[in-house]
Amino acid sequence: MNYWLVKSEPDAYSWDKFVSKGEDNWDGVRNYQARNNLKAMKLGDLVLFYHSNQGLEVVGVAQVAKEAFQDPSTDDERWVAVRLKAVEKLKNSVSLKLIKKDTVLSNLALVKHSRLSVMPVNPVEFDRIIFLSNEK
DNA sequence: GCCAACGTTGGC
DNA sequence: GCCAACGTTGGC
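Structure tokens for the assembled complex are given below, as produced in the milestone run.
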């Protein structure tokens, strides 16, 4: 099983909106690297949901409900979407600030490649974020 | 195939 | 609102 992190601006599409739908297509990605990551997602993979621009924190966990298919928001065959379903909201969201301070997470693509909107997360990093979300 | 110009993302 | 980092476009 693989782990991922996706970003969304809460103004455009928040975690709460996602939860209210239960599951939804993750489409509109127009970046090759991010698209390649979407294509690599397998059914059942877990996906961290991060709020960019506002919030700047990991807020919940989703799961891949359907592997890559033609992005329904465009006819351009280059782009794909996946279907994600909500799994759980983190007990405490994990802020970018905290992630940056954490030595285990210092190589996270979120920190090193801040503009990438869909990125892989290794199991150690994933566990660490879950661990941090349960602290306090 | 290079690179300048331009557009976008996202943290601050 | 600014701007650094990065991706894309298009002229040559």
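The helical segments of chain A are 15-21, 32-40, 96-101, 109-112, 123-133. The longest strand of chain A covers residues 80-95. Further analysis is deferred to the final report.
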